[in-house]
Amino acid sequence: MSSTFLGMPGDFPxxxxxxxxxxxxxxxxxxxxxxxxxxRASVVGELPDWQELRAAGKAIxxxxxxxxxxxxxxxxxxxxxxxxxxxWARDAAEANxxxxxxxxxxxxTEVVKVKSMATQEIELNQALAAEGITAYETDLAELIVQLGxxxxxxxxxxxxxxxxSEIREIFLDKMPKVPDNLTDDPPALAEAARLHLRERFLKSxxxxxxxxxxxxxxxxxVVLESEGNGRMCLTLPRTLISVVGIEKLLPTxxxxxxxxxxxxxxxxxxxxxxxxSMWTGAVEGQEFHLVLLDNGxxxxxxxEVGRQALRCIRCSACLNVCPVYERAGGHAYGSVYPxxxxxxxxxxxxxxxxxxxxxxxxxxxxxxxxxxxxxxAIDIPEVLVDLRAKxxxxxxxxxxxxxxxxxxxxxxxxxxxxxxxxxxxxLVPKRLPxxxxxxxxxxxxxxxxxxxxxDWWERNERA
Amino acid sequence: MRVALFITCVNDTLFxxxxxxxxxxxxxxxxxxxxxxxxxxxxxxxxNTGYRAEGVRLARxxxxxxxxxEAVVAPSGSCAAMVREQYPKLAKPxxxxxxxxxxxxxxxxxxxxxxxxxxxxxxxxxxxxxxVTYHPTCHSLRxxxxxxxxxxxxxxxxxxxxxxxxxxxxxxxxxxxFAVKNPAVSAAMGADKTRNILDTGxxxxxxxxxxxxxxxxxxxxxxxxxxxxxxxxEILASTxxxx
Amino acid sequence: MSARxxxxxxxxxxxxxxxxxxxxxxxxxxxxxDDLVGLFAERVDDYRAIVHVLPAAEVPAKIDELxxxxxMIRPDGDGWDDLNTADGVVTTCAxxxxxxxxxxxxxxPGQGTRAQTLVPDYHVCVVRADQIVSCVPEAVARLAxxxxxxxxxxxxxxxxxxxxxxxxxxxxxxxxxxxxx
Lengths: 463, 243, 181
Hints:
The complex is a heterotrimer of chains A (463), B (243) and C (181). Chain A has helices spanning 12-21, 23-45, 50-66, 68-81, 92-106, 117-121, 124-130, 140-147, 164-174, 186-203, 229-235, 256-267, 297-301, 317-321, 323-328, 339-350, 355-359, 369-373, 380-390, 395-408, 411-423, 437-440, 453-460; strands at 85-89, 110-113, 134-137, 206-209, 213-215, 220-225, 239-245, 249-250, 275-280, 287-293. With 463 residues, chain A is α/β, with parallel strands linked by helices. The longest helix of chain B has 18 residues, at 183-200. Chain B is α/β, with parallel strands linked by helices. In chain C, the strands form three sheets. Chain C has a five-stranded parallel beta sheet, sandwiched between helices. Chain C has a four-stranded mixed beta sheet with strand order 7-4-5-8. In chain C, strands 9-10 form a two-stranded antiparallel sheet. The interface between A and C is large, with 95 and 71 residues.
């Protein structure tokens, strides 16, 4: 996974500190995440068998991952049999090379795109631009981000950090034909996007998509969407190129019955998203290419605890319920995968070599809301804690933790430390020095009691 | 019934009043309370900050200290969740450590679980004539799945007016070392939690975890709100005679 | 080594020794509903699509009424045939799902091509009562994977502005469903 995504350059705490101070951003995120939380809770609550679906979803994904090599070969056979061509890419550079080559072979220099996390992850648009090919994003939120020369901040709604009036400003500034009297009424903004993209859909010869699911048994690809831009891209162009992570696989057609219930209710909080397209190989005279992407996924698969992150179906329910995401926003994570899932996926895909990536496993209070909301039961706190054990630690912290561990490992040492603290209780300042000032910047310290519980017990109870 | 009190290192050092309240409450309900003096810390801070080796040593120490007790009661949802949820993941399957953990884990209870599930009491005979709101804390709510046990206990306290806390299920922003590693987000979460608490008009904020209360209470105190924090045990231990 | 072989080898190495997993399927594969037509109609209506429930004999007249004065594509009969200037399209469907208010087109007879139900701004879809199943698993079982499938739940919409649903982006902005009983 590329590390050139520069939402912000610092580590997570520094990025988050800036975001927290942006009251407009705080307001936008709070409003959006609280809206979607309510919707999700209501449609999930409607299904009496949600936990059973969740258990099935988790098991189907685990079974697929355990047999991923076998199912990928089966998928390749099914897609090829149905007239499609399958390509394999070890990393981002190889995937970008394959896609650029396929586009060039058509003689076209413009492509339309359906929102796809995989192509964002490999920074396909930039790679195509370097080859003289212009990629046009067609999803409304992606369009807002692309026109605003901005970075995505959410998996499902990349422009979640923008409110309606900011979107209006971007449209007025960047859409050539938009009327000056455009209002910030959401239907008016949607209409502007419709008009802006209409002609491009009708004349584009090549489209690039990702996929939510691929079915090994049948070779079927599945894309869930809302606006119809997906259908436009998947249907109208002569050539369709889909770039899909190898973990997006499901073994059987029947497995869709689980995921078509889990995904829409978890992501947009609807009983079903407006449009789902399914196609098998080359359809209605189209040319179809499937690029299967590894790009670090097999490394994640090798980690016994971390591999559960590959169950992710990119619904973003974990972002929407996360109190840290709600305050820090997506850019602070410095990755196309923000929020709780990003905090476990990015360090696994990119490693923890940079200050930012090493800080991501700590971007959580371990409150567990993400795990509870996850439709495939990824135990995100468990993976975070596991990654923290592998993350680099500063020498000062290591020393402090060692001393604390030494004191706590023996009750007599602990009692002596408590008595020492008790003697100094009157001397504790209102503002603590060093790293502990982070505590006293906004909170008072509790008063140290006259004696510890164990000393009280010893004095009164140990008869 | 003979009960071992696992006080937890935070309560032992900073909140001895909570420990005394648990002792008096459990005795009032007919339990014999023992305090195994060799106990120290469950190891949560080390494990959750990425210091697994130190955490494993503390977990081993815990299982040795509390082996053989009929029931181990902790006045902390977070520490009880550490033992119950995280200990089993710390030892290699099939190892001696795993066996020791499997032996002790089923007998470790958070206080409200012990009262309701083991002692089968909801009315503990407490009296506390104040307006109280309850913050369920993440590890009690989503780790131990305590559900409404703590509020059922509070509802039976005479004189107590329990007011619901808006956004109760949201994390307060403590998160152990998260509070100092990500101070800006932690403080922002704390500020929102505080605002919700003030909106209830409660005099007292109650929770089953002093670590969360230390963070929220520190914020309430810095803002000079006048709202007090009290551990669940302290309210349940209050009686008319003691008032 | 080819990329294919290398990826497959890496996977083999990564999962070596890992245990396989049984898939528990204890979720509902059908749903008891006394009134599938009523539930379907209610759920389609929730998406702000327009719903008519009519005896089969009255359906042709209703279609005539709806399409009067519009350039409509009629995949089965004489209709407007230029995609870009058509006002709308009239189709049947393959399956409909009551619980989610979804219609599924497999683009067989009467259902047009994928483009024909996408480019025009107005879509009238006729659903026979016997095509309505209770829930998603029943629909998946009825559909043929080899066909291109389009699942439609209400008119085109977006949640991209402040996470609130707004109808009408690129697909048909008006969806009218006639349930033929």
